[in-house]
Design brief:
14 helices
C-alpha cells in the first residue's frame, strides 16, 4: 500500500508539469502542444521499446487496441482539452475543475466497483473524500475569484474553457480506471512494458495530428511558422521534457501504483498532481501561497493520510478484474 502511494506521489510530481507547458509557450496553439507532447512521448518510447522488446512482443492484438484507446483518450484528447481550456479561460479555472479529479475518480470507481476487493465501504471512503473536497475548495477559492475578475469581459471564451476542462475531467476519469482494469487483468505484464506500449500507440496518432495541424496552417495561411513555431528551441526542449517525464515516467509510476492500490483509493491519490501543479505555479510566479492555500494543502494531505490509515487492503495482484 505505501509503496503504491509513493509511486502515485512520483506520478503526481511528473503530471504536475503538464500545467506548466501552456503557461511557458502561450503563443503555441493547444492542438500543436498536444500533438508535440505526445509525438515526443512516442519518440522517447522507441529506444525504450528495444529494451522491452520481449515484453512488447508478448502483447496481443487486443492489448495493442486497448493501448491505442488509452493513448487516444487519456493522452491526446485529454491534453488537447486541458491546454485549450487554459488558453481560453486562463490557468485558474481549469485548475479548479481538474482539481476535482481525486473526488470524481474515487466516487466513479466505487460506484462501478470492479470486483468486491475493489469496492470500498462508503463510510470509510466518505471522510477522506470530504477532506480532499474541502482542501480543493480552499486551494482554489482565490484563484476562482481572480479568474472571474480577469475574464469577466469575455464570458463566452470563459464558458468554453470551463466546458473543455470538464471534457478533460471526463477523459481522465475514464483513463485511470480503464488502465487499472487492464493491469489487474494482466498481472504477468510489467507496468514499464505497458507504459512503453502506450507511448508507441500514441506515436502514429500524434504524427497524424501534427501533420493535420501543419496542413491546416498551410491551407489557412496562418501566421505561424511551422514546423516548430516562433521559439523552436524552447518548444522542442519543453515537449521532450514533458514527453519523457510527464508521459512515460508518469505513466510508469501510475501503472506501478495501480497494481498496488484499490481504484477508489487511487483516485484520491491523484491529489498529488494538484499539489504538484500548485507548487510549480507558485514557483513560476515567485510568490508565497496565501494562508487559505496552506489550509487547503493541509486538508488535502490529511485526506490522503486518512484514506491510507483506513486499513484498506489492496486487491490481490493475481486476481483479474471482473
Amino acid at each position: 500500500m505505501w509503496t503504491g502511494t509513493l509511486f502515485a506521489l512520483a506520478a503526481g510530481l511528473m503530471w504536475g508539469l503538464v500545467f506548466v507547458g501552456p503557461l511557458l509557450v502561450p503563443e503555441y496553439p493547444a492542438a500543436l502542444q498536444s500533438a508535440g507532447r505526445y509525438l515526443a512521448f512516442g519518440l522517447v518510447a522507441i529506444p525504450l521499446a528495444w529494451i522491452d522488446r520481449r515484453g512488447l512482443g508478448a502483447l496481443t492484438a487486443s492489448d495493442w487496441r486497448e493501448a491505442l484507446k488509452l493513448a487516444a483518450v487519456g493522452n491526446l484528447l485529454y491534453y488537447l482539452c486541458l491546454a485549450s481550456a487554459i488558453q481560453r479561460a486562463g490557468a485558474p479555472l481549469p485548475t479548479v475543475i481538474i482539481g476535482t479529479l481525486p473526488v470524481v475518480i474515487a466516487i466513479t470507481a466505487n460506484l462501478r466497483g470492479a470486483g468486491a476487493h475493489a469496492r470500498l465501504p462508503w463510510r470509510r471512503l466518505a471522510p477522506s473524500l470530504a477532506l480532499i473536497a474541502a482542501g480543493i475548495a480552499c486551494v482554489n477559492q482565490s484563484e476562482l475569484a481572480a479568474a472571474a475578475g480577469a475574464r469577466g469581459a469575455d464570458r463566452l471564451q470563459h464558458a468554453l474553457g470551463a466546458l473543455l476542462a470538464v471534457g478533460a475531467v471526463a477523459c481522465w476519469t475514464w483513463y485511470p480506471l480503464r488502465n487499472a482494469d487492464w493491469l489487474r487483468a494482466h498481472p504477468d505484464r510489467h507496468p514499464r512494458v505497458w507504459a512503453t506500449a502506450q507511448g508507441l500507440a500514441t506515436l502514429p496518432l500524434a504524427l497524424a495530428a501534427y501533420a493535420a495541424f501543419w496542413a491546416y496552417a498551410h491551407v489557412a495561411r496562418a501566421d505561424f511558422p511551422m514546423p516548430f513555431g516562433p521559439r523552436p528551441e524552447v518548444f522542442v526542449a519543453l515537449m521532450l521534457a514533458i514527453g519523457l517525464f510527464a508521459s512515460w515516467v508518469g505513466t510508469l509510476c501510475w501503472n506501478e501504483a495501480s497494481r498496488r492500490v484499490p481504484p477508489a483509493l487511487a483516485g484520491q491519490l491523484i491529489v498529488f498532481e494538484t499539489l504538484a501543479a500548485l507548487a510549480y505555479a507558485f514557483a513560476i510566479r515567485r510568490s508565497v501561497p496565501p494562508p487559505l492555500v496552506w489550509l487547503g494543502v493541509a486538508l488535502l494531505v490529511g485526506g490522503v493520510v486518512l484514506a491510507l490509515r483506513g486499513g484498506v487492503r489492496p486487491p490481490a495482484a493475481a486476481e483479474p478484474a471482473h
